[in-house]
Amino acid sequence: MGDINGANWMxxxxxxxxxxLLNIPGTHDCGTKNVENSxxxxxxxxxxxxQLNIGVRYFDIRCAAGSKDSTQYIKHSSAxxxxxxxxxxxxxxxxNTGKTxxxxxxxxxxxxxxxNEGDGSNDxxxxxxxxxxxxxxxxxxQDRIPCLDEVRGKIVLVRRFTDKENDYSLPRExxxxxxxxxxxxxxxxxxxxxxxxxxxxxxxxxxYTVKAGEKYELLKRAIDEMNDSSSNPGSGWAxxxxxxMNPTPFDTACEINEKLLAGASILNVKKVGTxxxxxxxxxxxxxxxxTNF
Length: 293
What we know:
Elements: E1 24-27, E2 34-35, H1 48-54, E3 58-65, E4 72-76, E5 79-82, H2 91-104, E6 110-116, H3 122-135, E7 139-140, H4 148-151, E8 155-159, E9 177-178, H5 182-188, E10 196-198, E11 202-205, H6 212-226, H7 232-235, E12 238-241, H8 249-261, E13 274-277, H9 282-289
Helix pairs in contact: 6-8
């Protein structure tokens, strides 16, 4: 196992299995390394390229249209994000970065979970913008959970925006894995102990308006459920977010990530699902993907 590294870890998985059966490291608000004007909205300290290199394979991406054009910019709440060159970060750049990475690492598969971070009117613009990438084959966009072998070398689209009319006349079943009710489901069940079932596709744990100590206890319960084969998350696609915002993502991530990396970590189990973190580090991401082996 010593040769497994962040660039190639999926290549070491030989069995034919659905992505839902793998333990996949992910990043919450992946584009916020250089978020404008607010450290309170920063959730990552690594660029997308750096995240790819250390083994991140699931990316939480938030988009909003510009005021003067149809470009879809990466945004967190009210703040736009920039790349390492100081330019505004766009979904186009993220897709091109992912495609280039996969060209050099064809055994890997990426999951881009894309959400509308703009106003309600952006759903149709975002749907249309993403539609061109579906139409030209840049995104794998069927509404089902694929097997890894089926999507090696590809970017899998998870849709958290509502399907709207688009210039490409793409039917709903060709607009990605549909998790569009994520926000409404999790909001209405915000006091749910652990997981919420979203669009009959995934079990999502996304309580974030809590303090680090409370969140860590929630993660413990979630991982217990994931490792109980008789539970719904244990037998399905579980997406578990470790992020919370009280007082800031950085402060809570420092506390939670230290515990996740500890020798007696709750990650020392068979199944952690798609595990999505703030302020990803190489050591933490490796700890997550190595649970597959």
